[in-house]
Specification:
41 residues; two-stranded antiparallel sheet; YHYH domain-containing protein; elongated; alpha+beta; 20% strand
């Protein structure tokens, strides 16, 4: 049961890494072409 809980936690934490492909500029920002927005990390 503990292995399943650890696996689920790792999966949930890793999903944020695939939110977008990146491609940041020199300021660590990028444009979201779907929404037209611009944000920084």
């Amino acid at each position: 049961m503990k292995k399943i809980a650890v696996l689920m936690a790792a999966l949930c934490l890793s999903l944020g890494a695939f939110a977008h492909s990146g491609g940041t500029d020199k300021n660590g920002c990028h444009r979201d072409h779907k929404t037209g927005g611009y944000h920084c990390h």
